[in-house]
Amino acid sequence: MNPRPLIAVVDYGAGNLVSIDQALTTVGADVRVAKDAEALRGVDAVIVPGVGAAAPAMARLDRRGLTGPIRAWLHAGRPFLGICLGLQLLFEGSDEDGATTLGILPGRTRRLEDAPTLPHIGWNQVEQTRTHQLFDEIDDGADFYFVHSYAGAPTGDGADRVELARTTHGRPFTSAIQRGSLFGVQFHPERSGPDGLRLLHNFVELVRAA
Amino acid sequence: MLRRRVIPCLDVADGRVVKGTRFVDLVDEGDPPELAERYAREGADELVFLDITAAPERRRTLLDIVERTARRAFIPLTVGGGVRTVTEMRHVLRAGADKVSLNTAAVADPDLIARCADRFGRQAVVVAIDALATGAGTWEVVVKGGRERTGLDAVAWARRAVELGAGELLVTSIDRDGTGSGFDTDLLRAISSSVVVPVIASGGAAGPDDFVAAVRDGGADAVLAASIFHRQIHAIADVKAAMAAAGLPVRLAPQAVA
To answer: Does residue B174 belong to any structural domain of this protein?
Structure first.
C-alpha cells in the first residue's frame, strides 16, 4: 500500500492552489495539479477546489476536457472531496447563474437566506449532524473559514443521510456532506488552521483505507 | 455564529515588513512569512499584506513572499498594493493569496472591480477605501496613500464599489491611521449601514477597547491593525479576550497540533 496517497487537485484557473497543495503535503499526501484528464490517471483521490460562480467554472472544466472524467470518477464512487464551489458543482444546478452542474447529488445551490452580511466571509461554527471519521478529533461546533454567498441544499429522501454538518448565517445551511467516498465541504479546510489540517488529514486517512 | 475577525496588516516594502505613520519614517520589522506564521499561531483570523513599494520591477519579490506565506500560515491572505489589472490579480492569487485589495486603481478605473469580480468571484475582491474627514458626517476618498484627494464621497463610493462587485470593504480613516487615537466609528457606521458586504475597520487602533468599539459602534465585521501587533504592544489573544468579554463572537484559536 502506498503510504502517501496521490491526490489530484483539479486546476481550472480558479485561483489559489498553493494553500491546498501545501496543506495536503503537510498531512501526508502527494499532490498532482490536474489541468487535463490525463493528469487524473493513476491517482487515489480527486479534489475539486474553487471559489466563484458555477457557470464559468463548468465552462472551464468543459474546455479542459475534465467534466466527463470527473463525472465518471464520481459515478465509480471513488474518493472525492469538493471544496466550496467544488461541493456546489456536485448538485444539479445553481441559482447563482442558472448553470447546470454535475448532478451527482439531488438538490440545488441556493443563495443563503436572511444572511446579515453577504458574502458570508469569515470563521463560523460547523455543527456535526452525525458522527463521521472526516471530523475525527475535531470538536462539534469548531470554527472553519467560509467565503461564499451560495450553498448546495441536498433534497430528496436521502438528504438527511447526505448531510454531515450544518452552519448558521441567517438561516442554517448544509456545510459538509458525505455519501460513500464522496465528500464535500462548503468551508475552506486549507485556510482553517489546525482543525482544517486535521480534516484534510482525516480525508487522506480515508483515501488510504479506500 | 459568524465570528468577528482580528486581522494583522503587514506593510511590506522590498520584501520586508515595515510600519511607520503611513508611508513615512519606515522601520524594518521583519520577514513577512515569519511574522505571518507567528500571527496565525497567535490566533489571527486572516492576514493582509499591503505592498507599499509596488514598483513593477519588484513584483516578483512580492509574489515569492505571498507563496512562502501561503505555505506556512494556513489562514486566509489578502494582498493589496499595486494591482491594476485582471492579469496582475491572477498572478497574486496563483501565488497563494485568497483575495486582492484594490484601492487607487479602482478609483481611477471603477470597472476594474467588475472585471476582477467576473473573473475570480466577488469574494476575492476587496475594495480599500481611504477616507478623509471633511466635515460633520462627511468623508472624502483619498488615494496614493492619502496624498491625493478625489472629490468622491466615501459612502457613495462604498455603495458603488459594492454594486460593481466588491465582496468586502477595507475602510481606513486617514485622519486616524498611525495615530493610535481609535477607529473612526462614525465613518464605519456610515458605511456598514449602507452596504450588505462585510466591512473591515482600519486606522487608529491603540488598544483592545478600540476593537470592541469598531464592531459594536461602527458595525464592522472585522478589525485590522498593524503596529500594535508588530511592536507587541498588545497580543491578538488580549484583543480577542476583550471582544469576548464585551459579548462579541470571536474565534478562540485551537492549539496547533505538533
So the answer is: yes
Q: Is residue B232 included in any domain, yes or no?
A: yes
- The pLDDT assigned to B258 comes to 36
CA angle B142, B147, B148 (to 5 degrees): 50
For an interface test with A, give the residue of B251, B252, B255 to mutate (most A CBs within 10 A): B251
Domains of chain A: residue spans and CATH: 6-209 (3.40.50.880)
pLDDT for residue B23: 45
- Contact residues, chain B, for A57 at CB < 8 Å: none
Per-residue pLDDT at A95 exceeds 90: yes
Q: Cα(B23)–Cα(B172) distance, rounded to whole angstroms? A: 14
B11 touches chain A (CB under 8 A): no
Structural domain contains residue B175: yes
Contacts of B196 in chain A (CB under 8 A): 117-118
Is residue A1 helix, strand or coil?
A: coil
- This prediction has a pTM of 0.95
Q: A84 catalytic, yes or no?
A: yes
Task: Quickly state the pLDDT bin for A103 (edges 50, 70, 90).
Answer: very high
CATH at B66? 3.20.20.70
Q: What is the number of alpha carbons within 13 Å of residue B206 lying toward its C-beta?
A: 7
- At residue A64, the pLDDT reads 96
Nearest to B22 by CA among B30, B11, B9, B36: B11
Secondary structure of chain B in HEC code, one letter for each residue: CCCCEEEEEEEEECCEEECCCCCCCCCEEECHHHHHHHHHHCCCCCEEEEECCCCHHHHHHHHHHHHHHHCCCCCCEEEECCCCCHHHHHHHHHHCCCEEEECHHHHHCCHHHHHHHHHHCHHHEEEEEEEEEEECCEEEEEECCCCEEEEEEHHHHHHHHHHHCCCEEEEEECCCCCCCCCCCHHHHHHHHCCCCCCEEEECCCCCHHHHHHHHHCCCCCEEEECHHHHCCCCCHHHHHHHHHHCCCCCCCCCCCCC
Question: Count of alpha carbons within 13 Å of A76, Cβ hemisphere only?
Answer: 13
* Whole-complex ipTM: 0.94
What integer best gives the mean pLDDT of chain B? 91
For chain A, percent of residues with pLDDT exceeding 90: 89
